[in-house]
Amino acid sequence: MGVIVENKRNLYAIGVISLLLSAILTSISQVYYSNRVQGVHPFLFTGISFFLTTVFFQLITSKQKVEPCWKEARSSLWKLNGASILAFMGFYFALKYIEPAIVSSLEMGLGPLFALLLAIQQKKRVINAQWGIAIGIFVASLLLIGAIFTGKSAVQTWDQSSILGVGASILCGLGAVLCTVYSKQLSQLGWTSSMILSKRFYGIILLSFIATYDVIFTYLLENIGWILLMTVIGVLIPMYLLQKGIQYCEVFLVMMSLCFIPVFTFFFQLFDTRLQWSTITLMGVLLLLLFGILSVVLEQRARSVS
């Protein structure tokens, strides 16, 4: 019995460390990508990186003896590809024009707000505490957006591209919620994580190559090094570590770890000389962290009651 308990503790520790490393690597990659993308097309990375990611997970899927239900899954798969376009292409586009901590915060912070709107659209019951969190998230998001357009963010300047960046960040938050919904539908149909990850990025790959077909060969050779590096440490490894965390830890801890990514991103971006210290950004990030944690706690309590 003691050996079993010790093994469970060890697996739990592995899960916690995996979640922490996943959050840290994700934050580092966001800051590094934001710096490198200033001189290249924002979708040069998404096309190559997600093509390699798709190939990687397709190789894993080919070794699994699970037959996908194509007919039942077709609709969810199409919608997941569309949602992934919003989530990932929106995110990487926004990183070119807005400081990483704000992009990361809006993506993570607006998730609960869009989830609430989705619940209302589906005529589900919404408690007062959820409304309070939604209002808090909205106010904190306005604070961050205000920092951008008053020149008080870490970038300190803004132009018309910044407006597109904010719009992309908002769409990114919406896409992240929809990705969760459609991924869950596929999981309920018996699709494994690897199967989903091998099929969800087709839309991103297609649109990225269409957007960069005229510059991809010009920029590819001189940028392939950091693109491959970011694909490994910014996409593949964090996804693998997150999956390990999900496997060994409770959902509550997984969601909490995701809430801290914008905080890590804020402090890692201090090493980027292109960006300056922004007190308003820090305030907005911490506010969204607070409301994000409250949202996770509230959902955990709801699960316990049900």
UniProtKB/TrEMBL annotation:
Superkingdom per UniProt: Bacteria
Q: Where in the cell is it found?
A: Endomembrane system
| InterPro entries hit by this protein | EamA_dom, EmrE-like
| Primary site of residence | membrane
Annotated keywords = Membrane, Transmembrane, Transmembrane helix
Q: Which SUPFAM superfamilies match?
A: Multidrug resistance efflux transporter EmrE
| Recorded topology in the membrane | Multi-pass membrane protein
Q: Which residues form the EamA domain?
A: 14-145
- List the transmembrane segments: 12-33, 39-57, 77-95, 101-119, 131-150, 162-181, 201-220, 226-242, 251-271, 277-298
In the UniProt record, does the keyword Transmembrane occur?
Answer: yes
Q: Which Pfam families match?
A: EamA
Family membership? Belongs to the EamA transporter family.
Which protein are we looking at? EamA domain-containing protein
This chain's source organism reads Lysinibacillus boronitolerans JCM 21713 = 10a = NBRC 103108
